[in-house]
Amino acid sequence: MPTLLILNGFKFFFYANEHEPKHIHVMKGGGFAKIELKSLSVVKNYMKPKDIKKALIIVAEYKNEFERGWDEYFN
Predict the structure, then answer these.
(1) Which DSSP category does 21 fall into?
(2) Angle at CA 31, nearest 5°, toward 25 and 37?
(3) What is the pLDDT of residue 18?
(4) Under 8 Å between Cβ of 66 and 56
(5) How many Å is the maximal CA-CA distance in the chain?
(6) C-alpha span between 51 and 69 (Å, rounded)
(7) What is the pLDDT of residue 37?
(8) What is the pLDDT of residue 1?
(9) Could you read off the pLDDT tens digit of each residue along the chain, which spans 75 residues?
């Protein structure tokens, strides 16, 4: 499970056997979400509303790095 970023209590990662479309998983405390990178849309959300908002801001800021990490790992 490659971890791409740990920031402000959030852990951003993907699994070693992932599939398209490119997406990132995020965890904070007991919460979990899955966010599609191209559209920044939330695919699954089990986080508090304030946490998912913060997670989306971070994903938008690090989107290029997350996509690069995905490409490097899977290609």
Answers:
(1) S
(2) 25
(3) 87
(4) no
(5) 35
(6) 23
(7) 97
(8) 80
(9) 899 999 999 999 999 888 889 999 999 999 999 999 999 999 999 999 999 999 999 999 999 999 999 999 988
Q: Token pair of 72, please?
A: 């490097």
Q: How far apart are CA 57 and CA 63, in angstroms?
A: 10
Q: How far is CA 52 from CA 1, 35, 39, 57, in A?
A: 21, 10, 15, 9
Residue 67 CA: distances (Å) to CA of 27, 54, 74: 18, 19, 11
pLDDT of residue 75: 84
Closest by CA position to 8, among listed 37, 51, 38: 51
Helix (H, G, I), strand (E, B) or coil at 42: strand
Structure tokens that stand for 68 in this block: 């690069």
Q: Which two tokens stand for residue 63?
A: 């989107």
Q: Is 31 left (phi over 0), alpha (psi -120 to 50) or beta?
A: beta
